[in-house]
């Protein structure tokens, strides 16, 4: 896998080449106080703790027409950004902001490359005014460094890591081909699981009857729905643990739990003639703990009485009993007539898509800034909690990492706010999300 590229940009003489040399670990680029020493972009393999990437040193950005030398140098910088994983916009903290800094900050907002604002030459108190002034660029807090003395590299690591981690995860998952939908159907005994699968297959593939507990082990069946492969998994009914005394039934319950772990989407079948019971919620909680996409489905719907009242009552009970997740689909189906089966399978594919969804780092951080503006994080004991960046570490289920300071003090209520906002913004309703908090630490310790 090719190393990601990190492009270093900024106006002339802010220390881009010094930073480049620091990252690649040797003096490759010429460094001098004279502006405009670098004219061609230069690349080198760079290491920042456990981050490995190609650093790209570019000419100082200046406003100029394409026919001039400065204009042609700027075109080189634009070309370098074309395949970059991230860009470091460098300013001089001691000199403060200049019109050129503001111009190119505005220009970078139009680029699709994730951007980290770096305030170089930040050693000593003389740089403090420039660091405060950097907020005027509207690019968030700058990373204060001294490329010449190696100060602030841990902070630069923290700012750059989310972008490179996310890119590596995208490339890794992009290599994986989508296989058949692994769909497990679970529930209490006699909820109609085997009858439903027989109707889906249009054959008496599984033994059924009025007796509870006919199915004893998990059965996998290959099937195709509208040209898409499905692997159906029928499971034994799961009763309350206190009622499970027979050794064979204990083995069946363990086999069902393994089936949940193997599945991508789990349908919990509820007997519409009995409604929702506490055991159904316990099974649902287990599915969510395993990180699987979940669908709740009322079976034997044609035999249910007062359907509207029943449906609304179950939906309200789910909202209360599964408060850790919102938007779990609630569907109805009949294993005798087949009504609702097509909708059920289509929703299962949609849930797998959401469960596998990856959100770009740029989209995430735009949402992240808006979420904090709408509802700022609290300040326990008057000390501010600073949330810097968010990135998606993996999918299946979607897992996100928030970087910042004092995140261990972030209340659970605010974490729920972030998770619920994430669901609504990116169409992740009904799938489990993981939100991990990573407070600032020196990676070089």
UniProtKB/TrEMBL annotation:
Binding site for GTP 2: 187-194, 234-238, 299-302
CDD domains from the UniProt entry: EngA1 (cd01894), EngA2 (cd01895)
Domain EngA-type G residue range list: 4-168, 181-356
SUPFAM superfamilies reported in the protein's UniProt record: P-loop containing nucleoside triphosphate hydrolases
Pfam families: KH_dom-like, MMR_HSR1
Chain positions recorded as GTP 1 binding sites: 10-17, 57-61, 120-123
Alphabetical keyword list: GTP-binding, Nucleotide-binding, Repeat, Ribosome biogenesis
Gene3D superfamilies: 3.30.300.20, P-loop containing nucleotide triphosphate hydrolases
Self-association and partners: Associates with the 50S ribosomal subunit.
Stated name of the protein: GTPase Der
Source organism: Pacificimonas flava
Taxonomic lineage of the native organism: Bacteria, Pseudomonadati, Pseudomonadota, Alphaproteobacteria, Sphingomonadales
């Amino acid at each position: 896998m090719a190393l990601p590229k990190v492009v270093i940009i900024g106006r002339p003489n802010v220390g881009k080449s010094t930073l480049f040399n620091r990252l690649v670990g040797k003096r490759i680029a010429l460094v001098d106080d004279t502006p405009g020493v670098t004219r061609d972009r230069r690349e080198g393999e760079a290491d920042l703790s456990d981050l490995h990437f190609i650093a790209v040193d570019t000419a100082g950005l200046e406003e100029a027409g394409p026919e001039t030398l400065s204009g042609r140098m700027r075109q080189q910088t634009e070309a370098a950004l074309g395949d970059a994983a991230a860009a470091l916009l460098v300013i001089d903290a001691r000199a403060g902001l200049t019109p050129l800094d503001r111009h190119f900050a505005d220009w970078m907002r139009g680029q699709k490359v994730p951007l980290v604002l770096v305030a170089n030459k930040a050693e000593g108190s003389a740089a403090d005014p420039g660091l405060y002034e950097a907020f005027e660029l509207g690019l968030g807090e700058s990373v204060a460094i001294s490329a010449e003395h190696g100060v602030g590299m841990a902070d630069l690591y923290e700012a750059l890591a989310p972008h490179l981690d996310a890119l590596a995860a995208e490339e890794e998952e992009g290599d994986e081909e989508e296989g058949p939908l692994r769909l497990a159907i679970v529930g209490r005994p006699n909820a109609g699981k085997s009858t439903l699968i027989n109707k889906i297959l249009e054959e008496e593939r599984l033994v059924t009857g009025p007796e509870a507990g006919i199915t004893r082990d998990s059965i996998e069946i290959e099937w195709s729905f509208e040209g898409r492969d499905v692997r159906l998994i029928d499971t034994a009914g799961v009763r309350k643990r206190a009622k499970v005394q027979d050794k064979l039934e204990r083995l069946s319950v363990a086999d069902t739990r393994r089936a949940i772990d193997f599945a991508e989407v789990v349908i919990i079948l509820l007997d519409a003639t009995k409604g929702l019971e506490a055991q159904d919620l316990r099974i649902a909680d287990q599915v969510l703990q395993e990180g699987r996409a979940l669908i709740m489905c009322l079976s034997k719907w044609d035999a249910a009485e007062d359907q509207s009242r029943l449906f609304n009552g179950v939906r309200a009970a789910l909202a209360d009993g599964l408060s850790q997740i919102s938007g779990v689909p609630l569907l109805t189906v009949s294993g005798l007539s087949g009504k609702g089966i097509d909708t059920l399978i289509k929703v299962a594919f949609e849930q797998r898509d959401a469960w596998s969804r990856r959100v770009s780092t740029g989209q995430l951080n735009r949402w992240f800034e808006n979420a904090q503006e709408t509802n700022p994080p609290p300040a326990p004991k008057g000390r501010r909690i600073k949330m810097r960046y968010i990135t998606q570490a993996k999918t299946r289920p979607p897992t996100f990492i928030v970087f910042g300071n004092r995140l261990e003090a972030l209340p659970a209520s605010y974490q729920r706010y972030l998770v619920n906002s994430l669901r609504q913004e990116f169409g992740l309703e009904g799938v489990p999300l993981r939100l991990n908090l990573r407070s600032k630490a020196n990676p070089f310790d």
